[in-house]
Amino acid sequence: MKEQISAILLEAKEQVADSQNEGEIEAIRVKYLGKKGELTAILKQMGSLAPDERPKMGALVNEAKSELECLIADKKTELKSAEQLKKLAEETIDITMPAKELKVGKLHPLNTVLDDMIDIFQSMGFDVVDGPEVETDHYNFECLNVPADHPARDMQDTFYLADNLLLRTQTSAAQIRTMETRKPPIRVICPGRVFRADEVDATHSPVFHQIEGLVVDKGITMCDLKGVLEQFAHEIYGSDTKVKFRPSFFPFTEPSVEVDVTCSECGGKGCRVCKGSGWIEILGAGMVHPNVLRSCGIDPEEYSGFAFGIGLDRLTTTRYKISDIRLLFENDKRFLDQF
Ligand code: DAH
Prior knowledge:
Blueprint: H1 2-18, H2 22-33, H3 38-44, H4 54-90, H5 109-123, E1 127-128, E2 134-136, H6 137-140, E3 165-167, H7 173-181, E4 186-195, E5 207-217, H8 222-237, E6 243-250, E7 253-262, E8 279-288, H9 290-295, E9 304-311, H10 312-319, H11 327-330, H12 333-336
Parallel strand pairs: 1-4
Antiparallel strand pairs: 2-3, 4-5, 5-9, 6-7, 7-8, 8-9
Helix pairs in contact: 1-4, 2-4, 3-4, 5-10
Bound molecules: 3,4-dihydroxyphenylalanine.
3,4-dihydroxyphenylalanine binds next to β8 and β9.
């Protein structure tokens, strides 16, 4: 029996040493130490021994069992830590790898410039109003002193939707809607999209943006117009920018002006952007025509006003040195990411 015990123990030790994982080691434990295990079975043979042999053999079996138990426990720990090391090695994080880029949205350059303009006019006491993009002939032309047969209609190639319905060609329509709903003193700006059937090129787009302005009160003169627009130009382009008022014509203002500022690209020397003139035209303006005031029920003998229309797209392309207006409308992220 003694030899039998050592043989079993030897065999079990070899198997423990060879085992590769926790499952295998557990199977070995059951095989030798379990209820029906080989060492347990030996204990059951004890009855066939002489009574004085029994304690000796019992001690031998128990010794073998506890030796094997220790070995199994050690092997289990060993396997467990090997597994843990393997897992750690597999899950190593390489902190030198470049991080995933987070795509963050931001304001379109047109909106950045518009926000600046709104700030400037709000600081001078103007309200911001909105107007519809689909307009009637009445608001877009008639009330602005441009009757159906007026040659000035040719200045703006219009997208007509129906006989009397069109895509507004100018934000000036908002002047009429404002004067119909508000009483003087009036000080508003109306930013928005406008539409014209122009030939598309680097400086022309069928959709572009204007900011309309309107001031109506008692005693408003051309000096007020000059003061407000000069202040605006200095805030947007810098205080050393020169501002020039040129006589012009719009059916809804009398007198009318166009306003130029020194070219921000060349500082007035003349370059490609200003086509050699040193000046860039940024807006049209004038004293509101008495016919326009009258069409909105405001007495031109009592009130006067000035109005202006600023091109937002030109302001944006010159500020950011964008060479082609079409880039503003393509919404190519590679372009927009630069601002
Ligand atoms: N509506 C004009 C245009 O689209 C711009 C303009 C000129 C607006 C003079 C005005 C103004 O309010 O007074 O060309």
